[in-house]
């Protein structure tokens, strides 16, 4: 924003200090003059013959004192203002570096905890979060480009093979192209959903998570039964505020992941909702392979997969938990993952009431 050039803060503080010192000096001089004009001075009593004579004798001293106070106030104010504003100069330099794209710089202001130190620490924390966010977005863009390029490259290969071999089974080619195209569509829709959640571009209304849990469990029950996985749902009322469609998608993703990342047969999925004084909770647990805490911590990252999926007919696009995390954060909630002692995963989403 273009603004007219004004006085610097340091000069303003200097003039303020000098003006205050001169005002204090003027008050003292005025008090001394009126005391003398009344014939009184601390410790001395005398008679003044005329105000003009007193003013003539007092004026040179007053002028000299005011001149000294002005110089003293300007010099002292300039030094003090510079000392006080030195941390602000470091913060300004860091801001300019961040504006040019350098997010790795930190102010790391020394000294006691005052207003400038709090501002610098807050700015350092903001830069750290911004740097991590930018790095995450770059990784996401690279992964998304790779994932989108894969089905296109497969389709191109299939078409090249078909062009070179006119006798190739056209029905098989169409089926494989349909699978590749379906994967590309699923990935694109997942990316759009993720973008919608990150942008918080949705209307909010009252939502009961227990209804979302029941709906997701019923919808995915045929998938679970076809693979020998049982779903047990404990849906206590859990009222929150947000997008019904996004929260249902979040719940569906969790239940779907619990089914496809399960044992080959005899697996179990537990879905539960509950309400506490501070918020509501959705918990989805499943049996499965033993997972390490380090691996579990990476699962919400886009395009991360913990293990090979048992059911290859629902390979997904690697954005299930990333979408869950984005939807939870868009609703001012949190996502927590932990490996189960007997194998499998426990996922907990906490949202405000």
Descriptive report:
- Strands 4-6-7-9-8 form a 5-stranded mixed sheet.
- A hairpin with a 2-residue loop joins strand 1 and strand 2.
- It is an alpha+beta fold and 353 residues long.
- The protein has 3 domains: 9-102, no CATH class; 142-199; 205-351, 2-Layer Sandwich (Heat Shock Protein 90), CATH 3.30.565.
- The longest helix has 50 residues, at 115-164.
- The protein has 8 helices and 9 strands.
Structure in a nutshell:
By secondary structure, this protein is of the alpha+beta class. The chain has helices at 9-37, 51-99, 115-164, 170-199, 209-226, 244-260, 293-298, 320-330; strands spanning 40-41, 44-45, 205-208, 229-235, 239-242, 267-276, 279-286, 334-339, 345-351.
Number of domains: 3
Q: In CATH terms, what is the fold-level topology of the largest domain? A: Heat Shock Protein 90
Q: Main beta sheet: strand number and arrangement?
A: 5 strands, mixed
Helix content: 55-70%
Low-confidence stretches: 40-47, 308-315
Annotation field: number of helices: 8
Bin the strand percentage: 5-15%
What class do helices, strands and sheet pairing give? alpha+beta
Q: What is the CATH architecture descriptor of the largest domain? A: 2-Layer Sandwich
Indicate the radius of gyration in whole angstroms. 36 Å
- CATH class of the largest domain, named Alpha Beta
Total strands: the figure is 9
Q: CATH homologous superfamily of the largest domain, by name?
A: Histidine kinase-like ATPase, C-terminal domain
Mean pLDDT: 79
Based on Cα principal axes, name the global outline: elongated
Distance between the termini: 41 Å
**Strand order within the widest beta sheet:** 4-6-7-9-8
Give me the strand/helix succession: HEEHHHEHEEHEEHHEE
């Amino acid at each position: 924003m273009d603004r007219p050039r004004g006085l610097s803060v340091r000069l303003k503080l200097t003039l303020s200090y000098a003006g205050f010192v001169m005002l204090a000096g003027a008050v003292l001089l005025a008090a001394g003059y009126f005391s003398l004009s009344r014939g009184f001075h601390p410790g001395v009593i005398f008679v003044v013959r005329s105000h003009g004579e007193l003013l003539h004798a007092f004026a040179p001293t007053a002028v000299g004192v005011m001149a000294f106070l002005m110089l003293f106030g300007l010099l002292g104010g300039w030094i003090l203002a510079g000392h006080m504003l030195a941390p602000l100069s470091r913060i300004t330099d860091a801001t300019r570096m961040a504006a040019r794209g350098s997010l790795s710089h930190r102010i790391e202001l020394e000294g006691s905890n005052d207003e400038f130190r709090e501002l610098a620490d807050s700015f350092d924390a903001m830069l750290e979060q911004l740097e991590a966010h930018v790095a995450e977005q770059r990784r996401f863009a690279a992964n998304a480009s790779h994932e989108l390029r894969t089905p296109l490259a497969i389709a191109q290969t299939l078409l090249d093979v078909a062009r070179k071999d006119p006798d190739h089974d056209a029905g098989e080619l169409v089926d494989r192209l349909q699978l590749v195209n379906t994967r590309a569509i699923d990935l694109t829709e997942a990316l759009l959903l993720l973008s919608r959640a990150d942008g918080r571009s949705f209307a909010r209304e009252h939502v009961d998570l227990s209804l979302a849990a029941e709906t997701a469990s019923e919808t995915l029950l045929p998938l679970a039964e076809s693979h020998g996985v049982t779903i047990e749902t404990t849906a206590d009322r859990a009222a929150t505020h947000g997008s019904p469609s996004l929260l249902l998608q979040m719940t569906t993703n969790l239940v779907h992941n619990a089914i496809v990342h399960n044992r080959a047969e005899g697996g179990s999925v537990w879905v539960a909702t509950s309400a506490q004084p501070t918020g509501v909770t959705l918990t989805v647990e499943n049996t499965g392979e033993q997972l390490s805490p380090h691996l579990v911590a990476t699962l919400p990252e886009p395009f991360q997969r913990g293990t090979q999926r048992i059911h290859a007919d629902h390979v997904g696009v690697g954005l299930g938990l990333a979408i869950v995390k984005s939807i939870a954060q868009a609703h001012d909630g949190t996502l927590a993952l932990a490996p189960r002692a007997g194998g499998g995963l426990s996922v907990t989403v906490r949202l405000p009431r």
